[in-house]
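Revision sheet: structure tokens.
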Amino acid sequence: MKNFKLIDHPIIKRDLTILRDKKTPSSQFRPTLRRISIMLAFEAARDLKLKEFTVQTPLEKTKGYDLKDNVVLVPVLRAGLGIIGGFLDVFSNARVGHIGLARNEQTLEPVDYYFKIPQRIKRSVVFLLDPMLATGGSGSAAIKFLRQRGAETVRYVCLVAAPEGVKRISKDHPDVIIYSAALDRELNNKGYILPGLGDAGDRVFGTNE
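Predicted:
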């Protein structure tokens, strides 16, 4: 799995434990997820290109930097909305799109119901944001949709990944790098990640309470 990057950090491990705990309420789940998202954003952007310019400090001129790459953030609805806030904290000038995908509980395959992304994404770095990479069906479909609209550089960012999902993305889109805070054991017979953290969307929005 050469295109899979595990973000190993003590704070992420601590916060991921909070998210896994079924007793954690949405009021604590949301800010914890946002904090992890910020750290994932820094790691996923580690090799972005820079441009130099001159900046005037209170004392003298010095060399300054800004991102050379344009950034587009695309959360997968609805759970991806829990990640977008942390990424916007890091990429304040980013443009934002949305992809709505629902999973057919019988076939476990994705069905799209909403797709709206910025124009001119061809030369942008597109971060596809989805907390859970389970079967990989939804993620692969989302990447395919982005490719059809001209996206060339896509990075998949998730909170928790299953080996099955990583293999699916790697097979369907071998040039896409996956960034994740955890690689869990497996999927159960309903396609949920084990040990996982449950339905991320429900826990973000409190629809499980």
